[in-house]
Design goal:
Blueprint (H helix, E strand, L loop, with lengths): L2 H16 L3 H14 L4 H13 L3 H14 L4 H12 L7 H15 L4 H17 L3 H17 L4 H15 L8 H16 L7 H14 L6 H14 L5 H13 L4 H13 L4 H13 L3 H14 L4 H13 L3 H15 L5 H20 L2 H12 L8 H13 L3 H14 L4 H13 L3 H14 L4 H13 L9 H13 L4 H14 L3 H14 L4 H13 L3 H14 L6 H13 L3 H14 L4 H14 L2 H14 L4 H13 L3 H14 L4 H5 L1
Helix pairs in contact: 1-2, 1-3, 2-3, 3-4, 3-5, 4-5, 5-6, 6-7, 7-8, 8-9, 8-10, 9-10, 10-11, 11-12, 12-13, 13-14, 13-15, 14-15, 15-16, 15-17, 16-17, 17-18, 17-19, 18-19, 19-20, 19-21, 20-21, 21-22, 21-23, 22-23, 23-24, 24-25, 25-26, 26-27, 27-28, 28-29, 29-30, 30-31, 31-32, 32-33, ...
């Protein structure tokens, strides 16, 4: 086949392809290849024809052969790109990207429009594959190309905005380089915006700040962006809110942070981040009740702030609202998810605070939960404070050997640590080794004098010590007073002071004041509530007694606060108000249906109200629960007599006299 014939055959092949006679084209090409096996155009035409005949492998092989022969010729690369772009081509995205890269190289010095088209396709391909770094780098090349061509500012602005759109999902699994390219795109887009200030520019700034807040290491850039936006848009609270949340989450309370909190509240008194900031300020100033109030309110408006939940838990812990503090710790942990970097510190702090709070609850279930929380702390095993908490949890759970082991190890490795000596003191105290407990608590106080709990336990140690020199309980009083002074929310310290003034000093009025304070601090403290009511009655101050009982019963859920219902019911019974007495005694029985004395009192209230049948049932119930209640059996007999059930009454009287021969009321009956 001569050179002229080869050309004619290739022309026939091209015409056949034009006319969609692909098999015909293949014949012509094969004829050419018999003569010239390295003919570039013949291989390209085979690729084209095979692709149209749905023979992708043959097409791919032909194009690759052509590329091998002429690596810098466009036709084969274009053909390969078209082949890979077909919808039926699977697993070729990596190869297609390589083809696009080569096409960019070949178009660079020639057809700029085609270069841009391929560039767009390559970016789209990388974006589908979530290869964000490649997306960013390729798109930047496109922008550079446009800049070199002298593109208008408005066109460049749109290109930077498109780059932001392409990369906005990349912050979820961010590598630093992609992150930097995204932030650069934001900065360019902001600088190239047309109308400044304007709505689009404002929204773009918000997005930029939102994006920056996801980068823990871009603190300076975030602060600058917020400051710049505030300068441009002085009436907008958004940059201030972001800045406030940033300060909260960073855990620093600088002058600038405090200024931001107050400025934000001036602009918008109902702003969640502003109220949270104010709550943290209160916490640092030891205004714990105000802190709890503000943080709770702020979190209702801005709940996705793990650090704020932690601060709320801390404030609740300070006022001994232990159950609430645990709930807040759980909220913080849930909001943190599986954190890295700075958030890992918050997670460790939240688990530690949760464990401390559970230990204060001091029952076995809470202790088990505390041990689990401590196990979640990263690198917690090497922290002596965590070890001392673990020791306390073991002690609360009744695992004395484990607690003692932790205590001994801590005293050897950290002899100057207050918590190590306190743990030893708690162990001795629980075993009633008061002399050793005294030494341990004194050692702990020597190292950390400001801890109320150590003084309280030393006071209790003196209270229960048996030797003669301790009988005046004066040393115990000193320690209880110190504990109450160091922690004015420690209800139990005031309860112990009440015990001292009531049982040792005989000062009922002062004792009543202490019990009242203890009960105000902890409304679940029945001992203090009961003592405050009883002492008020003894002091003839029924008004105070009733105000305490009314406050408790108003707040009480059904089936709770038995002591308050019972006390008020008995008061109404004594003062001739049987209907009120019935209602309160019924409420007390809902809390404890097996209290025979309460049933007896209820019977008395029904009797005084004239409800004899119901009174009879109540007295019978009392005697069923406690057959030794002779008075209830007698009252049942007397009621049977009143109701005309004489035979029953006689039988009941005889039953009493069998047990108690000389029980006069029964003899009279």
């Amino acid at each position: 086949m001569s050179n002229k014939e080869v050309k004619a055959a290739l022309k026939s092949a091209r015409d056949a392809i034009k006319n969609k006679q692909y098999k015909e084209a293949l014949k012509h090409c094969k004829a050419v290849l018999k003569q010239e096996k390295n003919n570039y155009n013949a291989w390209v035409f085979i690729g084209l024809a095979a692709a149209e005949l749905e023979q992708p492998d043959q097409a791919k092989g032909a194009y690759k052969k052509a590329i091998e022969l002429e690596p810098n010729q466009l036709l084969a690369w274009q053909g390969l790109a078209n082949l890979y772009e077909k919808p039926n081509q699977a697993d070729v995205k990596g190869d297609l990207a390589d083809v696009y890269q080569k096409l960019l190289e070949l178009y660079e010095s020639g057809d700029k429009q085609k270069w841009c088209d391929v560039c767009n396709k390559l970016v789209e391909l990388y974006h589908q594959e979530k290869k964000y770094l490649e997306v960013a780098e390729t798109w930047q090349k496109l922008i550079r190309m446009k800049q070199e061509e002298g593109a208008e500012k408005a066109e460049l602005h749109q290109l930077w905005k498109k780059m932001i759109q392409l990369l906005k999902d990349s912050t979820k699994n961010q590598d630093n380089k992609t992150g930097q390219l995204l932030l650069t795109a934001f900065e360019h887009a902001l600088h190239s915006a047309d109308t400044v200030p304007g709505e689009d520019h404002q929204n773009l700034y918000k997005e930029f700040i939102q994006c920056l807040s996801k980068f823990p290491h871009e603190v300076a850039r975030l602060e600058k962006a917020c400051d710049d936006m505030m300068a441009l848009y002085p009436t907008m609270t958004y940059p201030l809110e972001v800045l406030c949340l940033h300060f909260v989450q960073s855990g620093t309370l600088s002058e600038k942070a405090l200024h931001c909190f107050s400025k934000l509240l001036e602009m918008d008194a109902s702003s969640g981040p502003g109220i949270i900031g104010f709550g943290i300020k209160c916490l640092k100033e030891n205004k714990y009740k105000e802190a709890v109030k503000s943080l709770t309110e702020g979190l209702q408006k801005t709940n996705q702030c793990p650090a704020a939940w932690y601060y709320l838990a801390e404030a609740q812990m300070k006022i001994h609202e232990h159950r609430n503090a645990i709930l807040s710790c759980n909220e913080a942990l849930e909001a943190l998810g599986t954190p890295e970097g700075p958030n890992l510190r918050w997670k460790n702090l939240a688990f530690q605070l949760k464990a401390e709070t559970l230990i204060k609850i001091a029952d076995a279930d809470a202790a088990e939960e505390a041990i689990k929380a401590l196990e979640q702390i990263v690198d917690g095993s090497s922290d002596p404070v965590i070890s001392s908490l673990r020791g306390q949890a073991y002690l609360n759970k009744g695992l004395m050997d484990q607690a003692s082991k932790v205590s001994q190890e801590l005293l050897l490795s950290h002899p100057d640590m207050a918590e190590a000596h306190a743990l030893e003191g708690f162990i001795h105290y629980s075993q009633k080794n008061y002399d050793q407990a005294e030494k341990s608590f004194l050692n702990a106080i020597e190292r950390k004098a400001g801890t109320a709990e150590y003084h309280q336990y030393l006071g209790l140690t003196y209270w229960f010590m048996g030797d003669e020199t301790r009988k005046d309980k004066g040393k115990a009083l000193t320690q209880f007073l110190k504990a109450a002074k160091l922690d004015s929310y420690l209800g139990s310290a005031f309860c112990y002071l009440g015990n001292y003034y009531r049982d040792i000093a005989g000062d009922k009025s002062r004792a009543r004041g202490c019990y009242k304070k203890a009960f105000e601090l902890d409304e679940t403290d029945e001992e203090s509530g009961t003592a405050a009511v009883n002492l008020s009655v003894e002091l003839g101050d029924m008004e105070t007694a009733l105000s305490i009982l009314n406050e408790v019963t108003e707040k009480a859920r059904p089936g709770t606060a038995k002591w308050a219902w019972l006390h008020r019911g008995l008061y109404y019974l004594r003062t001739g108000q049987p209907s009120q007495a019935v209602a309160d005694l019924q409420a007390a029985l809902r809390a404890d249906p097996k209290d025979s004395n309460c049933w007896e009192s209820l019977g008395e209230a029904y009797f005084n109200r004239g409800s004899y049948s119901t009174a009879l049932k109540s007295f019978r119930k009392a005697s069923e629960l406690n057959p030794g209640l002779v008075y209830s059996i007698y009252r049942a007999a007397a009621l049977e007599q009143i109701l005309g059930k004489y035979e029953n009454a006689i039988a009941t009287y005889q039953q009493i006299l069998k047990k108690t021969e000389n029980y006069v009321p029964a003899l009279k009956g």
